[in-house]
Amino acid sequence: MERRTQADRDAITIEIGYAVVSACFAAALAFGAVYGPALAFSLSPSTRRILAVAGVILAAVVFLLRVTHVLLGFARRPENDGD
User: Fold this and answer.
1) Where are the beta strands (DSSP E) in the chain?
2) Which residue among 20, 33, 37, 40 is least enclosed by CB atoms within 10 Å?
């Protein structure tokens, strides 16, 4: 197995950082889309709690899907095939 160059390690680090930052942004948007009505309208506390839990679950799923999508896409690039 061939050792990775410093440029390869730097590219991986940048890609991981991009994946995490873009996933945080997407998760925040997803949470805001679900919980936003609780802030805009006068809803009961139980409804607010349900929206908060649903928002957190959706945000977590969006975060994981975004990180997976970005990193798998990076791994499948021809220049990253290990040759």
Assistant:
1) none
2) 40
Contact of 25 with 41, CB cutoff 8 Å: no
Tens digit of each residue's pLDDT (9 = 90 or more) over 2-44: 788 888 889 899 999 999 999 999 999 999 999 999 999 999 9
- Rg of the Cα atoms in the chain: 18
Amino acid identity of 82?
A: G
pTM score of the predicted model:
0.84
Residue 22: what pLDDT? 97
CB of 19 within 8 A of CB of 65? no
Distances 26 to 39, 49, 63, 75 between C-alpha atoms, Å: 19, 21, 7, 21
Task: Report yes or no: 38 and 50 within 8 Å, Cβ to Cβ.
Answer: no
